[in-house]
Amino acid sequence: MGGVPAKMDEIMSIAAKHHVPVLEDSAQALGATYKGKPLGTLGQMGIYSLDIGKIITTGEGGVVVTNNRDYYLKAREYSDHGHEQNPKVPRGEDTRTTWGFNYKTTEFLGAVGLAQLKKLDMILQKQKDNKKRLKDGLMAIPGIEFREIPDMAGDASDTLIFFASSREKASAWAKKLATRGVGTKNLPDAVNWHYAGTWTHIFSDYPEYKGKDLEQVWPKSTGYLRRAIALPVMVQMIDERIDTIIKAVIETAKEI
Ligand SMILES: *Cc1c(COP(=O)(O)O)cnc(C)c1O
Question: How many structural domains comprise the chain?
């Protein structure tokens, strides 16, 4: 999440122990790495989102990566009405073994994606530089608690995340920052969208979760997410803007 690798060694070893395939949601992490390997390539399959808010974009859409041919074919069928793209028959007579959706991308979007890909190194470098300037500036706040980054070298962050001491204080932070013209990115403002602890409409299908307060079922995740404040890190952020944000955060810290 936010371009930061998870503790992949631990995840991969738990998965191996229980024979569970790992599907990496690397939607926000194109170009990020863990111990030198690109995120999205550590598990059996990975995905990158090319939605407008991600590291590179084609407007909408995304990419699935895998080095397992069976998974690749299944993904292709699923995104093409279940068609097998059987080379032995013309398209109109294509064969099917399963159902699927129309999630095909277009050549237009492919062209935009290739042009975006050329900018990836520049985008990652600028975000890295901007994040460093922002983080260095915020170190002036006594006791500031940043999110843990399991592999700093692989960080492709487009956010800088730190924690308030409580859920209530996180909301107060966001409100005060907004009055100083500094926005937050998803945390804490859109946590309800992104945290499974609020997805009672989905988990009510599972008897073990039905009727439960999921935020209580997963107290550690709830604790971290509800206290988190995410500052956006942009590619085109001039130094003066970063310095303005640093000043606003330091002033807010004094009031909270
Ligand atoms: C954006 C995002 C998605 C969804 O990607 P779409 O391209 O909008 O389908 C999934 N997971 C994470 C972590 C994301 O950030």
Answer: 2
User: In CATH, what number is assigned to the domain containing residue 82?
Assistant: 3.40.640.10
C-alpha 108/C-alpha 223 separation (Å) is 43
Largest CA distance in the chain: 70
* Core vs surface per residue 10-48: b (16+ CB within 10 A) or e: ebeeebeeeeeeebbebbbbbbbbbeeebbbebbebbbb
Residue nearest to atom 8 of ligand 1 (CA): 51
| CB of 51 closer than 6 angstroms to any ligand 1 atom | yes
How is residue 184 written in tokens?
Answer: 């937050």
Span 208-251, pLDDT tens digits = 999 999 999 999 999 999 999 999 999 999 999 999 999 999 99
Both tokens assigned to 152 = 């700093």
pLDDT class of 113 with cuts at 50, 70, 90: very high
The pTM of the full predicted model, rounded to 2 decimals, is 0.91
Atom 14 of ligand 1: nearest residue by CA position? 27
Q: Tokens 């099917």 belong to which residue? A: 96
* Residue at 104 is within a domain: yes
Contact 39/63 with Cβ under 8 angstroms?
Answer: no
Ligand 1 atom at minimum distance from 51 CA? 7
